[in-house]
Amino acid sequence: MEFMPISLLMLGLLGSFGHCVGMCSPVTLLLTRPAQRGKSSRAVHGWLPLLHAGRLSTYALLGALAAGVGQALTRAVPQVRYVQGLLALVVAGVLIYMALAAAGRVPPVERAFTVLTRRWGDAVRQWTVLATPRRYHAFLLGGLWGLLPCGLVYTALLIATTTGNPLSAAVGMALFGVGTLPAMLGLGWLSTQGHLPSREVLRYLAAGLIFLFGIQMALRGLAAWGWVAHTRVGGIMLW
Hints:
The chain is an all-alpha fold.
């Protein structure tokens, strides 16, 4: 059994409280705009689960695609284990950078996608103006939400890439999305109340977790090259 799905669930759970609360507050307000036209809190609360269902569906699809790319790369080269090791080490380096970014020590990766994020916001804003409060609109808007440039999502996708198993990666990314729900559903309610919780401690917890995933990926890469031994705990492979 792979440790990856559990890792992604934990990343979504802890990382979302430290990251999404600050980043996604305006996004949540934007995407609930069609339901808010009805001036009913019940309409907004009924809209949110469908938004998140669409978001999780996009995450699962992206996870399968990411794992498929990783699988294709490893199959394209005869010496598969060396490619797997190199891929894991590259992912480890990126994860460690993202951990430092989450801790505020280096610029966040979202800065590199400022133009893309602005275009995403313009496109979604037009949808929210035109959309009526119908259920399938909420699901479609949630699917677009899953495409929002986000360092935490990219972190999860990098982990999914190393699995080489599209189905396992899709499940893992769906679990990542499930892990974000406590923060995001709470965020949806808190944003309507006009206040958000302090997130400094949670931000550092998320940074520490991402850093540990980076170390795990580095050890996995070294193990693929035979430099360190693979390690299992029960039936779960850590690296």
